[in-house]
User: Which sequence fits this backbone?
């Protein structure tokens, strides 16, 4: 396969779609110093707030008035023409239209990245023709630069392409590479998982209130407890069962609480939630 290496020191990054997902990725890239804002470009057709958001940290934003054809697609052409790496950050229902309309410009010299949920690599590659595609799936924590990101390389993407995208998206969180066949399960766990944890935080806070704590204090303690426990699991690499045992004294308060959770089937419920979300992800894709 012929290689088309991206120029490491001079490449430009373009976004098709200027929503909050694209903004958070661009902000992370600039904030981390991986790319200067001057080498990032996007287009905002009609929403002045989106233009202001990107321009606030130095990213160049085209509008339809920047192009003589005055069509949204024409502005997208400009973004593609001026970029080496193009991120398709569009809604799934418009992904096919966006990629197909830009197909004449999507040569193998362009590295394409999709963050459109549920759109498979085989479809992206078919719509784009001979282009190099990488599929990336961040979760909703991306806005606070704590995202969990999984990527899968298309058939013509190279190992060097993967390293470049890992570095770019690593600026907004921790990134893993995995076969695309796991993406529905990833969606069920890390994509939908934050909602499960928010429910747990709310329930813990409610328990604190029931035990006599003021609401604000209970919510703060619940949130920080979850944050601390997650940080400990991530940093130590210990099995969560071991960490649980480390804070569970014989006949103490913690084992009394765990006993209640086990009687209620907490583990089974969380497992079922992940499996149900993964199943729904397969149905939607």
Assistant:
């Amino acid at each position: 396969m012929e290689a088309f290496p991206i120029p490491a020191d001079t490449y430009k990054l373009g976004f098709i779609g200027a929503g909050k997902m694209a903004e958070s990725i661009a902000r992370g890239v600039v904030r981390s110093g991986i790319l200067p804002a001057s080498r990032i470009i996007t287009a905002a057709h009609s929403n002045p707030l989106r233009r202001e958001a990107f321009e606030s940290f130095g990213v160049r934003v085209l509008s339809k008035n920047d192009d003589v054809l005055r069509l949204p697609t024409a502005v997208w052409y400009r973004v593609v023409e001026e970029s080496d790496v193009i991120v398709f950050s569009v809604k799934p229902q418009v992904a096919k239209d966006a990629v197909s309309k830009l197909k004449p410009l999507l040569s193998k010299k362009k590295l394409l990245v999709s963050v459109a949920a549920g759109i498979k690599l085989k479809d992206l590659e078919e719509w784009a023709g001979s282009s190099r595609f990488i599929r990336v799936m961040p979760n909703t924590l991306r806005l606070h630069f704590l995202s969990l990101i999984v990527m899968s390389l298309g058939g013509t993407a190279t190992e060097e392409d993967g390293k470049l995208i890992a570095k770019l998206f690593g600026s907004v969180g921790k990134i893993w590479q995995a076969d695309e066949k796991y993406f529905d399960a990833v969606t069920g766990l890390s994509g939908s998982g934050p909602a499960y944890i928010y429910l747990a935080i709310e329930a813990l806070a409610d328990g604190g209130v029931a035990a006599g704590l003021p609401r604000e204090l209970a919510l703060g303690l619940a949130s920080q407890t979850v944050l601390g426990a997650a940080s400990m699991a991530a940093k130590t690499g210990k099995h969560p069962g071991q960490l649980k045992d480390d804070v569970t004294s014989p006949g103490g308060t913690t084992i009394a609480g765990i006993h209640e959770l086990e009687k209620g089937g907490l583990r089974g419920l969380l497992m079922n939630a992940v499996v149900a979300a993964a199943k729904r992800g397969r149905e939607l894709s």
Observations:
- Confidence is low (pLDDT under 50) at residues 67-71.
- Residues 4 and 109 are 6 Å apart (CA to CA).
- Strands lie at 13-16, 40-43, 60-62, 85-88, 111-114, 132-138, 147-153, 173-177.
